[in-house]
Specification:
The structure holds two protein chains of two kinds. In chain A, 69% of the residues lie in helices and 0% in strands. Chain A is mostly helical. Chain B has one domain. Chain B contains two helices and no strands. The two termini of chain B are 27 Å apart.
Amino acid sequence: MSVAPVSQQSLADRLDAINEFDREPVPPDRLQGPGSFMGLFAGEHLAGTEFVIGPLFVAHGVAALDLVLGLLVGNLLAVLSWAFITAPIATRTRLNLYWHLRKITGPNLLFVYNIVNALMFCFLAGSMISVAATAVGLPFGMAMPKLNDVYPNSVGWVLVVFLVGIAVTALAILGFQKIAAAGQVASPWMFMVFVAAAVAVLPKLGVTSVGDFWRVASERIWTGVPAHGVAKFSFWHIMFFAWFCNMAMHIGMADMTVLRYAKRWQYGFLSACGMYLGHFVAWLASGILCAAALGDVAPGPIAYLGAGVTGVVCVVIASWTTANPTLYRAGMALQTISPNWKRWKVTLAAGAVTTAAAIFPALMMRLLDFVALYGLILMPMGAVIFADYWLLPKLGLRQRYAEWKSVLFSWPAALTWVITLVACWVINAVWGLGIFFLGLPGWFIATVLYMGLSAIQQPARAEV
Amino acid sequence: MRTALKLISFAGLGLTVVPSFLVFVGRITWDTHAALMLVGTVLWFASAPFWMLETKPRA
């Protein structure tokens, strides 16, 4: 069998080659039970980022009651989003995000989506390299970055980030599967480390009995007073952040790739395992550690304060097991740009970009904003999938029009994506609505836009 | 063998988390807690991969 030279392959062929084993719907014999999803969600939402997010809430001066209520409600809304938006479409199509979106957007727009996604992955992996560097540099007395630092504060920081970046990139090239397995094994232990580290520092904060906790929490941990130079967070900030920090996964539909294996759509509710262990208990725990460290937000030192060497090891493992698969996925997506390059070269390039970004501590210290932006940028495509699946048939319009018409670039989807993001920017600039909140109006804008633009694209109402 | 490995793993998890509560109630020092956590960590990673990664591949 002859194979066309890579350089002569079309963009669609190159993109498809990367996903060649995932084109078909999941067969019934490969569907999985609820236990797999409980473990999967719990593991995925207990990562290095949790060491940063809890302290940043403390720095932003959220009050204890606002934090607890905000997390309870926001995480509930996230679970409902997985259950009622992602899982029903995933279990009906049984396709991953890539193949389902390709049918709607056409391969060329999907290419653009992949590149944007890859860049987001690079920055996310970069923040994890920064987190790991705060642990690796600890024994060497490295000066830790501060909350408002944008640029590197020492040569030592640059060197440690560089070394960690090399290690993470090398592992992403050499042993992604092993690192992914290590992450799976580490999850239950990491949860215990979070809990233990927080409990062990409670006496330092003046908590000597369970009855003391709420008083100390309100007066010494989540005091309602922000650190100098940062905005104060309310219940609404916490609620919307908890809801939308994984917006790319639920409303953005990326977790179709996982939930297509679910026997029933109700397995979407099992995301509660990740939300309430990782995004509730772990965030509270890391916030307690931050307060015990007198407001220090660098993950390495605060983990050491609570759990000693084990805490430092936990920060490194949590960061690496997040950064490696993320970098690997970024490399896969970027390979579509340069098909003549081997996978290892592309991953090396992605690692270089990632490490360069990680040198700037702002990436870690502004993680809340970055995570919100990441979800917001990818959200419109989730709205397009939702509208295509549920709403277009009700308007008498054809679903998956690009596939039906063999369209390479769906302009309604492209315009929906761009106009939605511009509209969110305008809402932010004109009305001052913060980035955490933009996903909600943005989703409705994207949904309505896609329906309207699809109606223009399909003038003669096609059979559905 | 698998049961023994699981027992070692759960003992490791116990050593990771229980000492912190003993620090909280003032029964052991923070240094002891940190040392026991490290032992628990070693036990967990020395045993858990052998039974956790045997389970069927996940999604």
